[in-house]
Amino acid sequence: MNTGLKELMLYACGKIAQADGACDVLLEVIMAVINSGFCNKICGLISENLIVSMTDSTKAARQVSCCLHLMSKCLDLVPNASVNEVSMLTIVVERVVDTMDIGHLENISERLEEVKIRKDEAVRKFMEDRIERNNNSEERLPLDNFRSTSVLPTLDDIIKTEKPFLRKNRIGVPYDRKRRYSACGHIIELYSH
User: Residue 125: which of 167, 181, 185, 78 has the closest Cα?
Assistant: First the structure.
């Protein structure tokens, strides 16, 4: 994709992000942009402003402005799905704004700060959700160590009404730790008799 086409795509994405209307259509467009890897091309396009010595600051400001609109809409509609791309774009945009001194054009500095705050909040929420998912995952280790589990059922095991902890067996995928492999094998062997 040549530079002119990338630039047109960025301007179109910026205009689409500013549009009011059916969010499901905007959501489809934004997810297509994210899934296509176009964010990487946007980084390259905006970074070219740092390399080319005769770059027009108005053109750079327009590119950055469109990118900020797109980033803002991504954070509105799909914060978890877009947090990596928005983080990457934030770094590039911030560098271009600082180097080319275009922050005063089109309220870019204020909009960039707003996007950074929202991005940091999305990252924090994403990490909290990931920790929560890991804590509630079936893949977590049981409370007791498999080495201390009795081979013969104890009275507590017989009286228990809750199902025993059974970790999913991983087929065709390597275990990340030897301990997990040993624990899984031991539990399967224990309950298969």
Answer: 78
Structure tokens at 21: 């209307």
What gap in Å lies between CA 85 and CA 155, rounded to an integer? 54
Query: Per residue in 108-140, pLDDT tens?
Result: 999 999 999 998 998 888 888 877 766 665 555
Q: Give the CA radius of gyration of the chain.
A: 25
Contact 105, 57 (CB under 8 A): yes
Question: Could you give the 3-state DSSP secondary structure of residue 152?
Answer: coil
Query: By C-alpha distance, which of 73, 40, 111, 72 is closest to 103?
Result: 111
Backbone φ and ψ of 103, nearest 5°: -60, -30
Please tell me the distance from the alpha carbon of residue 97 to that of residue 77, in angstroms, as a whole number. Answer: 25
Each residue's pLDDT tens digit, 80-118? 888 888 888 888 889 888 888 888 988 999 999 999 999
pTM of the predicted protein model = 0.62
SS3 of residue 141 by DSSP: coil
